[in-house]
Amino acid sequence: MAASKVSVEDIKRLREETGAGVMDCKRALEQAQGDVEKARELLRAAGLLKAEKKLGRVAREGVIACYIHHGNRLGAMVEVNCESDFVARTPEFQQLAQEIAMQVAGMNPQYISRDDVPADIVAEQRRLFYEKAIADGNSPEDAERIAEERLNKFFEEVCLLEQACIRDDSKTVGELIREKIALFGENIVVRRFVRMAVGD
């Protein structure tokens, strides 16, 4: 489709929804022949290759999102950061923050990433898993492998970024965030979270 047939309204809509640059939105719409949904997917796919390079960039803008479960007895609050106020105000970014707050409330992670787990806890878990594998009759070599597998499973349970998404368990929270980094073209960081339940 010729560039002249891509409407300004569609470019504006795509930019507001994704946070992508004007020219990127225009090119995606041209490739998608004016189909906004297809253009959004093209932007996402193109950005995935660049996402890893953006992970180290400073993210100081963002939002604080809250989720309160039915009955008002369980809730969570998260701070999710990005690089620009423009992206922070997009509906998709705010929805991401809301989903992460829901994840924290529902799955009760203890840490953001495995790097946040204290070394003494990691060492103790590894020792316990190794001793259990030995007690089950495994050789030392097999016990080492089993201990590492169980340690990775432990990280998947207690680390937010390694948990399966509560709304789509085909991907982890970390993978979801990397998809959004690709979509927005900005680094995204979960800065902190807190979970509260009545009686805890």
From TrEMBL:
Its main location: cytoplasm. Residues 84-87 are annotated as: Involved in Mg(2+) ion dislocation from EF-Tu. One of its GO terms (molecular function) is translation elongation factor activity. GO terms for cellular component: cytoplasm. Keywords: Cytoplasm, Elongation factor, Protein biosynthesis. Belongs to the EF-Ts family. Associates with the EF-Tu.GDP complex and induces the exchange of GDP to GTP. It remains bound to the aminoacyl-tRNA.EF-Tu.GTP complex up to the GTP hydrolysis stage on the ribosome. This is Elongation factor Ts. It comes from Candidatus Fervidibacter japonicus.
